[in-house]
Every structure is written in C-alpha cells, then in structure tokens.
Amino acid sequence: MHKGMLHLQNVPNYSGILMHCGQTPEDTKGCLCTGSERDPDNKDRVLGSVKAYLRIYPIIADPLDKGTDRVFINIID
C-alpha cells in the first residue's frame, strides 16, 4: 500500500514538507501530520493519526501512481 512518502512541493519559503503520521508538534518539524480529530484534552494533539493516514494516502498516491502530474491539497488554517 505504501509506495513512498507524500511530499508537498511549491510551498513558498518552505521545502522538504512531508505528510506522515504524528500526534503532537514534537512529531513534526513543519510537516503535515494526519489526524481525524483534535484531542479534547489537549488542543495541540490530534487523534487517529494512523487511521487518517491510511485513509488519505491512496486518495493522493493512486492518481500520482497512474501518471497524474499533480495533486492539489488546500491547507486551511
């Protein structure tokens, strides 16, 4: 299922941004950590990271694997 890391490109002033599992700011250095919801007891922590990653990975990776040049992700703060 996993064919490689998802790498965000063309982000102004940033490079090396990956999408991966993680739950806290300590799990990332500017990368995107997946999650299905915020921890109600800790606003800086997400829950369901692995489950969310397994759900989103094929949505992004499969079109790229089939030859689509680009997939777009909108980041909303």
Return residue spans where pLDDT drops below 50 for at least 5 consecutive residues: none
Biggest sheet statistics: 3 strands, mixed
Question: What is the overall shape?
Answer: globular
**How do the strands of the widest beta sheet line up side by side?**
1-2-3
Helical content class = 10-25%
Tally the structural domains: 1
How many helices does DSSP assign? Answer: 1
Structural class: alpha+beta
Give me the Rg, rounded.
Answer: 13 Å
Would you list the SSEs in sequence order as H and E?
Answer: EEEEEH
Terminal CA distance: 29 Å
> How many strands in all?
5
Provide the residue-averaged pLDDT: 90
**Approximately how much beta-strand content do the residues carry?**
25-35%
Q: Which helices and strands occur, and which strands form pairs?
A:
Blueprint: E1 6-8, E2 17-21, E3 32-34, E4 37-39, E5 42-47, H1 49-65
Protein traits:
22% helix, two-stranded antiparallel sheet, 5 strands, 1 helix, 77 residues, alpha+beta, single chain
